[in-house]
Design brief:
Blueprint (H helix, E strand, L loop, with lengths): L6 E4 L27 E5 L7 E5 L2 E8 L2 E2 L2 E2 L1 E9 L2 E11 L6 E7 L8 E7 L4 E6 L7 E4 L7 E8 L2 E7 L6 E7 L5 E9 L2 E17 L7 E5 L7 E5 L2 E8 L2 E2 L2 E2 L1 E9 L2 E11 L6 E7 L8 E7 L4 E6 L6 E7 L5 E8 L2 E7 L6 E7 L5 E9 L2 E16 L8 E6 L5 E3 L2 E10 L5 E8 L2 E6 L4 E8 L2 E11 L4 E3 L3 E6 L7 E5 L10 E8 L11 E6 L8 E5 L1 H5 L5 E10 L2 E4 L3 E4 L1
Parallel strand pairs: 35-42
Antiparallel strand pairs: 1-43, 2-7, 3-4, 4-17, 5-6, 7-16, 8-13, 8-17, 9-10, 9-16, 10-11, 11-12, 13-14, 14-15, 18-23, 19-20, 20-33, 21-22, 23-32, 24-29, 24-33, 25-26, 25-32, 26-27, 27-28, 29-30, 30-31, 34-36, 36-39, 37-38, 37-40, 40-41, 40-42, 43-46, 44-45, 44-47, 47-48, 47-49
């Protein structure tokens, strides 16, 4: 079978081999670290290390015998984070003092020299690695990653006591290097670690686009598998977005198997959410909102759901262990809104395309107790596969109780593109049902960029460097309740650094059928399968690296394009035909 398919791993890389630059703090000074970052030597290295921040990047200088074995000597730029967390960063450059000089991201139990830790690192000349010391004073384990050096992305994700390390060429497509169980406390130290692996000399490095994203649930919420699904599920949360992975035979029949993110409530309740995506499992994989009498797998419940490929539905189980009733809500697919409203013993289900105009899917009398659980439910409808659902804009309200404020970003528009250094107007509409709104905060990739206490809630975000940013607004009221807006993603393009490389995954038939690759450029919005390209370049047949990734230098071809935004595809060609990648968007 002729495949000739091409998968993009990354978009064009700029002349400096850095795609974007991420600001950790607004108006940070070159010779100091912006809050909440702190810098410190660990283990008493000599000479001492240092770190500074400016123009969206950290610059580090560090000595130290090593990070490894049973004790560490290094410089650490860190912040303390409670609960689950994700940290990622672009190691843009490394000037080593030794082939084993190391720079990367770390999660550490404490600030002692022999603390338990995990470390995703780029070395001077020995490739990438995931290191872990499972317990204080224990031996450090190391798993080799790709044989690459800076520039390179590294990432760690902590879920409970499990820490997983990743690497990436572009910060978008990640390769797992390893995972380990680490003795971390409720809070841990998260940041950038660097050692020269030379007790008398320092190494230097620059790191940008550092993103620290707490993943723990809201204070009142918990997450658990219900009905002992065969593959354990997981939940991460950050900036109003829940990512829920679940297996499970079904939610239905007399018993359920699923992942549940829930909180306890009493009495009447209104719960709604947007299911942004469902990936994996069967076409009948389900995600939605649920009201449930108990955490027993046979419990009475009602669920408003969207499935991966079967549309909307309203389900209810009237008796413990009884069969589940089901009403179809018609066709549809994520992104989709679902909602349940309980009034006494009556539960009504709704669907919506926009979260504003609601259509009823039906109502049922479900004789549940006054105290119950409400939340998000996901099942893969498979005992051998998992489903991952991304759900946001969860709202839970109860009559007679203080209600949270509402907030929505009004500017910039989703998908907006700017040129660096950009001055971006960010605005939001916010209100509180009790007229007790106290402030609106704006965040970019989880970092606060402004806090406003009076309307209009508009600010200018100054001198934004090149990069891709996810913006949110959070509204707070006097009762301590808060609401996070739906995220808006924007892009800021660099000036004066035209793209140079096309980076893509080689065809599965690269060694047998493919004779060459071709880069095609299109206007944004054109269908590459029908529209003629604006320009094309024969890339020949460059050799893929050890992970099957091809990097083709297209400097002259791309520099000839007029400044603007384009779409690009790569096609694998042989004597019988060709296969085209999905398009990516880039700025020239």
């Amino acid at each position: 079978m002729r495949q000739r398919c091409v998968e993009w791993v990354g978009v064009c890389v700029f002349a400096s081999l850095i795609c974007m630059s991420w600001p950790i703090g607004v108006a940070a000074q070159t010779d100091q670290l912006p809050s909440p970052w702190v810098g410190s030597d660990i283990g008493g290295p000599s000479p001492t290390g240092s770190a500074s921040f400016g123009n969206g990047s950290f610059t580090l200088s560090a000595a130290g015998a090593d990070i490894g074995d049973v004790s560490d000597q290094f410089h650490f730029v860190y912040q303390q984070v409670s609960g689950d967390v994700d940290i990622q960063a672009s190691v843009d450059s490394l000037s080593p003092a030794d082939p084993w000089s190391k720079i990367g991201v770390m999660i550490r139990s404490d600030m002692t020299h022999d603390a338990a830790n995990a470390f995703a690192t780029v070395t001077g000349a020995m490739g990438l690695a995931f290191q872990s010391r499972p317990v204080p004073g224990g031996t450090t384990d190391s798993i080799a990653g790709e044989p690459a050096g800076a520039p390179q992305w590294v990432r760690l994700t902590r879920v409970g006591t499990t820490v997983t390390g990743y690497s990436s060429v572009d910060g978008a497509s990640w390769l797992m290097m390893g995972s380990a169980t680490i003795a971390l406390g409720d809070s841990a130290y998260v940041g950038i670690a660097m050692t020269s692996h030379n007790s008398v000399a320092t190494a230097q490095a620059t790191v940008s686009q550092v993103r620290v994203t707490p993943l723990s649930l809201r204070t009142s919420q918990q997450s658990a598998d219900i009905g002992s699904p065969p593959i354990p599920g997981s939940t991460t949360y950050g900036q109003g977005v829940y990512t829920i992975t679940a297996s499970g035979a079904n939610i239905g029949g007399p018993s359920d198997q699923f992942r549940f993110v829930f909180q306890a409530v009493t009495g009447d309740v209104d719960i709604s959410a947007r299911v942004d995506s469902i990936q994996g499992g069967s076409l009948s994989a389900k995600a939605g909102v649920m009201i449930r009498e108990s955490l027993d797998p046979h419990a009475r419940n009602a669920m408003a759901l969207i499935s991966a490929g079967r549309g909307y539905a309203f389900q209810s189980r009237l008796d413990p262990g009884g069969l589940t009733n089901r009403w179809s809500g018609g066709g549809g697919a994520p992104p989709a809104w679902v909602r349940l409203v309980r009034t006494g013993s009556t539960i009504e289900a709704f669907l919506s395309a926009d979260g504003s105009s609601w259509t009823s899917m039906g109502a049922e009398t479900v004789p549940m107790a006054d105290a119950l659980y409400v939340g998000l439910a996901v099942t893969s409808r498979s005992t051998t596969q998992t489903t991952t659902a991304v759900i946001d804009q969860l709202t839970i309200t109860q009559p007679g109780l203080p209600q949270p404020p509402t907030v929505a970003l009004t500017a910039p528009s989703p998908g907006s593109q700017f040129t660096a250094p950009a001055h971006i107007v960010v605005s939001a509409n916010a209100a509180d049902p009790q007229n007790q709104l106290v402030r609106v905060e704006f965040y970019s990739n989880g970092t606060r960029i402004a806090s406003l206490t009076t309307a209009p809630f508009t600010m200018t975000w100054p001198a934004v460097p090149a990069g891709t940013y996810s913006l949110t607004a959070v509204a707070f009221d006097a009762a301590g309740l808060s609401t996070t807006s739906a995220p808006v993603t924007i892009t800021v393009a660099a000036v004066g650094s035209p793209p140079r490389f096309a980076i893509f995954q080689a065809s599965a038939d690269d060694a047998t059928l493919v004779t060459s690759y071709r880069l095609d450029i299109f206007n944004v919005g054109d269908d590459p399968n029908t529209a003629p390209p604006l320009a094309s370049s024969d890339l020949g047949k460059p050799a893929p690296d050890g992970s099957g990734v091809i990097s083709a230098d297209c400097t002259a071809f791309l520099a000839a394009l007029a400044p603007g935004t384009y779409e690009a595809t790569v096609s694998a060609v042989d004597g019988a035909g060709e296969g085209r990648s999905s398009p990516i968007t880039f700025a020239r």
